[in-house]
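notes to self, project folder thing:

trying the whole complex as one job this time. last attempt i did each chain seperately and stitching them together was a nightmare. two parts in total, labels are on each line so i dont mix them up again. if this works i'll redo the older ones the same way
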Amino acid sequence: MDAYDELLIRLKDIDLVSQIGGLLGWDQEVLMPPKAAALRAEQLSWISKTGHEKLTNPRIGELLEQLEQRDDLNQVQMGNLRLTRDSYRKATKLPTAFVAEMAMHKSKSQISWAEARSKNDFSIFRDDLVKMVEMSRKKADYLGYEGVRYDALLDLYESGLTVSKVDPLFAGLRENVAPLVKKVIENGKKPDMSWVHENTWSKEGQEGLSQSISEAIGFDFQAGRRDASTHPFCGGPNPDDVRWTTRYDETDPFGSLYGSMHETGHGLYEQGRPRNLDFQPAGSANGLGVHESQSRLWENQIGRSKEFCEWSLPLWKKYFPKQMEGVSAENLWRSVNFVEPSLIRVEADEATYNLHIMIRYEIEKKLIAGEIEVDDLPDAWDNMYQEFLGISAPNRTLGVLQDIHWSFGAFGYFPTYTLGNLYSAQLLNAAKKELPNHDQLIKNGNFTPLLEWMRKNVHSRGSIIEPSALIEEATGSPPSPDDFVKYLQDKMQYLYELTS
Amino acid sequence: MDAYDELLIRLKDIDLVSQIGGLLGWDQEVLMPPKAAALRAEQLSWISKTGHEKLTNPRIGELLEQLEQRDDLNQVQMGNLRLTRDSYRKATKLPTAFVAEMAMHKSKSQISWAEARSKNDFSIFRDDLVKMVEMSRKKADYLGYEGVRYDALLDLYESGLTVSKVDPLFAGLRENVAPLVKKVIENGKKPDMSWVHENTWSKEGQEGLSQSISEAIGFDFQAGRRDASTHPFCGGPNPDDVRWTTRYDETDPFGSLYGSMHETGHGLYEQGRPRNLDFQPAGSANGLGVHESQSRLWENQIGRSKEFCEWSLPLWKKYFPKQMEGVSAENLWRSVNFVEPSLIRVEADEATYNLHIMIRYEIEKKLIAGEIEVDDLPDAWDNMYQEFLGISAPNRTLGVLQDIHWSFGAFGYFPTYTLGNLYSAQLLNAAKKELPNHDQLIKNGNFTPLLEWMRKNVHSRGSIIEPSALIEEATGSPPSPDDFVKYLQDKMQYLYELTS
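result (full assembly):
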C-alpha cells in the first residue's frame, strides 16, 4: 500500500476515537446523570489512552519520514503531513510519566482552585499553582521552541503562534483601545437599560429567540442540536453532529441570545468543514483563534450591529410582545453595546474584553519566562486592572482567582480569545469588499452571502495552511489589530458621541 | 502477573468499549440529529470492530486454557471463566468473512422487510429471508450444538437455553392458557373502557405519572434518565448511567405508563448489578429471559395488580384530575387488564401475549430444522393464529411481516419474552413466601421489600451462574410455567367471572 494511503487509514482510526470522545464529553456536560461521573471518567481516560497509543505508534513516525522525502505532494497532502508531524511530535516528546503526573495534578489543582475561589483565599491555591507553573515550564522545555519558552505553549492552541507574533497585536490594542475605553468612561453617557432590568424574560421566549436567530443565520439543525448547560460550549463528534449549548437567566435576555450566536458561530464553522477531507487533520477547524473569529463574528460584529438589531426587533417583539413594547431598534442596539469596565472577563463588553486578555497574556508571558513568580501574581493582577481598566478587585475571587484556566495548566490559551476578535474584524472587512451591500443584507436578514464568503474563504480551507497564513490568504494581509481598532473606534464614537 | 488478574484487565478493556457503545447507541435512538446517521454508523462499526479484536486476541485463549486447569477458583471466578470462554468461542468460531457477509445482509434485508411490510407484499422480502434463514442455519452450524441446530441460536440470547428446555414451558402454556383465553372470549364480558377513550391525556400529565411511579418503585434518577423515543427501550453504558425511554400517545394513557414500568424494571436490574464485579462478565445482567422477568414483574405482576391500582389511583387523579373524575381503583384495574385476542404482538394483553410468542417459537424451530421453508411461512402463520387465537390477519402486514426480528436474523430471540413472563411469576411467588404481607405493601406503595428481595436473589447475582440455575437458586424450583398459569387463571377467573 502507498505510504500516504496507509497514513490516511491510521488517521481515520485516530479521528474516530476523537469523534467518540467528542460525544462522551458533550453528554457529560449536558445530560449525564450525576452518579455516572466516575465511570464516565474511566471511559474518557480509555478514549484518551487509545487515541494516544494510536498516534504514537512508531509506524506513524516511519510513514512521516518516508513521506517527508517526497516532492510530489499537493497542498492538502502537505497540510496533513505537517499536522500529523506536529501532533506526533507533541505526543511523543512528553514522557508518559510526565503526562500522567500532569493529569493527576490537574485534577488536584482544579479542586484547590475551586476552594480558594469560593473562600476568597489565594493561599489555598498557591502551592498547587506553583507546581503547575513549574510543570508548564517543563512541558514547554520538553516540547521545544525556537524563540522564548512561552512560544511552545502558545503553539498548543494556535499552530505557529509565538510571542513575537502576539506582542504587536496587543501593543496595537494597548495603544488604541485602552485610551478609547477611558474616553467612554470620562464621557459618562449611558444607554437606557431600564427596559431590560424592569422586565422578566421567560426561558421559553429566550429559547424561541435563540432558536429562530440561529436558524436564520444558517445553522443546520438537521446536523446539530441546541441544548442547555451550565457553561455554554459547542461540541459534538463531527460536522454532521454539531451540538451547542446556551444558558438562560430570566433577568437578562442578552446572555442566552449572544451566547447562542457565539456558539452558533462555532457551529457554523464546524458544519462548513471540507467534507472531502473527513477524518483528516487538514479537514478540521484551524485552531482556537480562527474558531473564535467565527463565534465573535456572529456574536459581535454582526449581532451587535445596528442593522442586525433592526432586523431582529420583530423577532424580539414576537417572543416578548409585552416586554418590548415601545422599545426601538435604536434602544436595543444601544443596550447590547453598553460599555463599562468590570472585573469579570466573561461578563466584559466588546470594548473592554481584550484588555482583560491582554492583562492575562502579559502575566503568563512573564510567569513562564520566570520573570515573575506565583507570589507576585495577585499584586501584578490588581496593578494592571487599575492601570488599564481603572478598577480594582475588592477580593481575590473577583480578581486573580476568577478563571479556571491556570488551574489546569492552560497557559497560552487566553490570547486566542483576542486573536479571534482581531481576525473577525479583519475577515468581515475583507468580506465587505466583495459584498458592497453588506449592511442592507444584514438589515434584510439575508445572512447567506456573508456565510457563503466564510464557507469559501475560511471553513472550507480546514487546516490545510497555518492559521496566520489562512488569515492572510482570506484577507490579503497578515493578522493585524488595525481593523478591529478602527471598528471599535467608529462604533464607540458614534454610540457615545466621542470627539476624536 | 497472575493469569486471572491479566484476564480481568483485558475484560475491563473490553467492557469499556461496550459501555461506550452503549452510550452511542442510546444517543442514536434518542437525540442524534438525522444527518449524523452515516458517521454514527462508522463510530459504531469502529466500536464493534475494536471490541471484537480485543475479545478474539489469542492471548485470551491462552489465559482461558491456563485458568481452566486450575481447581482453586471460586464461584465468581468460575462464572467469569465460563462466560469469557463462551464469548470467545462464539467470536472465534464465526469466520470473519461470514460475519461481514451477515452484517451486510442484515442491512439489506431490513430494508426489504420494511418495504414488504409497507406494501403488504411478502414476495418483496422473500428472497432476502430465504438467504437469512440459510445464513442462520450456517451460523448455528459454525457455533455448534449438542441437541438440535436451533439450540445454538437460543443459546445466543439466554445462555444454556435449548429446545428440550423450552418445549415443556410452551406445552404448559398451550394446554392451559389457550383454553383460558377461549373462555374469556366466549364469556363475552368486557370492562368499561369509555373513560379511557372519551378523554385526551396530555403528554405532560403522562410524563408526571411515569416519572412519579418510576421513582416510587425505586429507580435512581441520580444514576439514570427518562427520555422519549419511537421504540421504548432501556440502555446506557453502565449501572451508574441507566437510560430508559417511553413514548406518549394522547389518546391512550396506558402505553406510556406501562412502557415506563416495563423499562423501569429493566433499569432496576441494571442499577442492582453487583458493583464489586464492575467490568466483569459475571457482574452483568443474566441474559434476556431474566432481564425480561424484571421488566414484566413491574409492568404486569405488580403494575396490573388490584393493589397497585388502589395505590396509584391518587397519582392518576393528581395528574389527570378531570379525566379521572368518578373513576375508581376497580375501574382502573379492570381497564388495564382488558383481554382480547389481537393480531399484533406488541399490543397484546398479558393473557394472549405468550400465544403470539409460542406461534413464533414453533415456526422458528421448524424453519431452522428445515422442516418448513420460507414459502410455507405465511400459511403456517395464519393457521396458527386461527388455531390459538381464533383470528386471522387480513393481510401480510398485520400477519407474518409484523416483526422486524427475522429480517436481521434474530432467530431464537422471541422465546426469551415468554421466559421473562414465566420467571416473573415464579420469582414473585418465591418472594411472597418471604413477604407474607406483600399485597398490603403494594397497596401502601411500599415497593422496597420486593425490590430488596430481587436485589438480593436476582440482581446482585449477576451472571455468576446460568439463568436457569439462577431461577432455581432464587425460587427453589427449575423454570416452570406453573406459577404463571396459576396466576393468569386466578386473575382471569376473578376479572371475567369464569367458571373453572
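what i see at first glance: Chain B touches chain A at residues 13, 16-17, 19-20, 23-24, 27, 31-36, 38-40, 42-43, 46-47, 220-225, 237-238, 240-241, 278 (CB under 8 Å).
need to look closer tmrw
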